[in-house]
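Researcher: Next entry in the queue.
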Amino acid sequence: MGAISASAAGVLTGGLPKLLAAASPSESKETFLLGGDLLVNRLGFGAMRLTGEGIWGWPPDRENAKKVLRCAVELGVNFIDTADAYGPETNELLIAEALYPYPKGLVIATKGGNTRPGPGQWVPDGRPEYLAQCVDKSLKRLKLERIDLYQLHRIDPKVPVEESLGALKAAQDAGKIRHVGLSEVTVAEIERAKKVVPIVSIQNRYNITDRDSEDALKYCAKGKMGFIPWAPIGGSGSRSLSKASNPLEAEAKRRNVSVVQLALAWLLQRSPVMLPIPGTSSLAHLEENMAAAKLQLSAEERKRIEDLARKS
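Model: Structure for this entry, 312 residues:
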């Protein structure tokens, strides 16, 4: 696949209009300068779902998974989020299979520090020696000389965070990673981490029905740090915003959009530092998600949606 610029957001089928504005040297409503030097389109793609059941092993349809990744880029995505724990390892390998050599300007963010004893199981490991190996292995799997954004997947309660981040600082000093981010942290933990290494992004669970990380979002907005909400449409199972009888359904029908599109549009307009990464293994759902970038909500509509979401 040839290199596709951020301005080449095109169509899959049906004459879908250009979804994302052309990237320029400075931020716009549709873009964010991650770390002050990486211009990314704010609606990204989370690759976690491109795995087997339980986020374990290869996806059932490997070729389809690669098509989803390629189409995401064609639709304007230039920020893809993954982790060594997804699969484990297979998700990073799949991204390289699908997209290498990478289009110019594509930012691939990955994470380390969460081990996978088995399907559905997650155990933090923040030992410095382990994280140093994680960085090297992710570089190899992704076929990168430097990882643009490397995130500590979880703080390990058994290891002082200063030691874990010290390993990432050493990798940064060695030119192996460009920027460092954190995942599932409090404001106090962010401030503690910043004493060791500059932190450019936070990835916490956040969506219209789950706003427990509001303080972290406000902190990011104040410091112009990227806020990457995982489970931006509620995740899977009973918490998914796409489940039947969602309180947002009536408002979505009034706008002739889906509940998912409404929720993503709300996120994008919630804060200029918000970088949603909705994930899917479906080409149709990918197109639906990306269309949310062009949905504009008035202040009145945003408040009405928030009030409805509280009933979820």
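Model: The longest helix spans residues 128-142.
Researcher: Noted, moving on.
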